[in-house]
Amino acid sequence: MKIKRSLLLLVFGSVLVLAVGSYATDNCPCYDLFYREAVFNAMLPDESDIYNNLTPIAESNNNLSWQGEGTDKRVLMVAWTKYPSSYPVGQSVRTSWGDTWVTVYPEIQSYFTNHPMTDEDLRLQVAQLLGLPPNTNNSYFVELWVKPTDLFRPSADNEINDTVAQLNFPNSTDLSYKIWFINNTKYSYFTKRLPWTRLGYTYHWENNESKIGLSEFVIKKNSEVAVKSLSSTSDYLNQ
Q1: How many domains does the chain have?
Q2: pTM of the full predicted structure?
Q3: CA-to-CA distance for 232 and 38, rounded, in angstroms?
Q4: Rg of the chain over CA atoms, in angstroms?
Q5: Is 19 exposed, middle or buried (0-12, 13-18, 19+ CB in 10 A)?
C-alpha cells in the first residue's frame, strides 16, 4: 500500500512541476509541445497502454545475437550515448557509472531500414523513437555483449524473457527493485522529464500511428560488458 501511495504522490507532484516547467529545446522549439504531451501521457499508463509483443531475451528468440556458452553466454545490446570514451572497442568495461539503458541488436537499425530517414536532423529522429528530449546530445551507438542476468526490463513487471510487461508488481518482486522503480519514477518525471512508459518499450513521441517505440532494457550498475563496436549515429544507421 505504501508503495502505491508513494507512486501516486510522485505522479501528482510531477504533474504540478511539469505544468509550470519548461523544456530545453532551443535547437527545435516546435517539438516542445509534442514532447511535453508525451511526458504527461507516460506518467499515467493504463491497461490500454500494455504492449503484448515486447522482445523477449531468450535463447529461443532467433532474432537475437549471442556469444559464448554456459554462464558466460551474452546477448548483443545497443546503447545510444554521448560518452564514447567510456566504451573502448574490444575491451571489457564495468558499468560503474550507473544503469545503462539499451535496446536489442539489431532493432534500431531495422527500424530505420523500414522507415527511411527524412531530411530532418537524424539525432532528433532517434530521440523521438527512443523517448528522449529533442535536444539530446547523444551522438554514438555502442554495441555491447551483456549477460542476460545483468539485464532487467524497466517495468513493474521486470522479467526479460516474456513478451508483455504488466502495470503492477508481481507478488515476488524484491523490495530493492520497488525502491529503484519509485526512485526512477521521481528521476524521470521530476528531474529529467522523460516519457518513461514503465511498460517495457520506448515512447515514440513523434509518431501519429503509434507511440510504441522499441523494447527497452537496463544493464545493471557495475555489470561487466564487452564492447563490440562504437559508431557515430550517422555511420551506424547507414551501414
Answers
A1: 1
A2: 0.90
A3: 27
A4: 17
A5: exposed
User: Helix (H, G, I), strand (E, B), or coil: what is residue 177?
Assistant: helix
In sequence order, what are the beta bridge partners of 93? 225
Place 13 in a pLDDT band, splitting at 50, 70 and 90: low
Cα distance between residue 139 and residue 123, in whole Å: 7
pLDDT digits (tens, 9 = 90+) for 149-178: 999 999 999 999 999 999 999 999 999 999
**Beta-bridge partners for 225:** 93
The span from the CA of 37 to the CA of 205, in Å, is 8
DSSP letters for 111-144: HHHHS---SS-HHHHHHHHHT--TT----EEEEE
> On the CB side of 27, how many CA atoms lie within 13 Å of its CA?
9
Residue type, 186: K
Range of the domain at 109: 2-237
Name the phi and psi angles at 213, rounded to 5. Answer: -95, -115
